[in-house]
Specification:
mainly alpha
Length: 73
């Protein structure tokens, strides 16, 4: 993988976290999630919340919604 600039890295973290969270949400519709999956969800929610809190372009880049409402931890 090629090196990313700061913007590309933040976008990568957002996109990767959202994909992971959606996958866990799909699993949770079918069965109870494991402790590992719960921890993974918590970690990715935290990543998004940190980006939302500290990145001045977060809202403009699509993080303008309540993360924990959509992905409760």
């Amino acid at each position: 993988m090629e090196k990313l600039n700061a913007y590309e890295m933040i976008r990568y973290l957002i996109d990767n976290s959202l994909i992971t969270l959606e996958e866990i949400a799909d699993v949770e519709k079918k069965r109870d999630i494991t402790q590992f999956e719960f921890g993974l969800r918590t970690a990715h929610v935290e990543i998004l919340e940190i980006i939302e809190s500290f990145w001045d372009s977060a809202k403009a880049e699509g993080l303008d919604w309540d993360i924990e409402e959509r992905f409760p931890v």
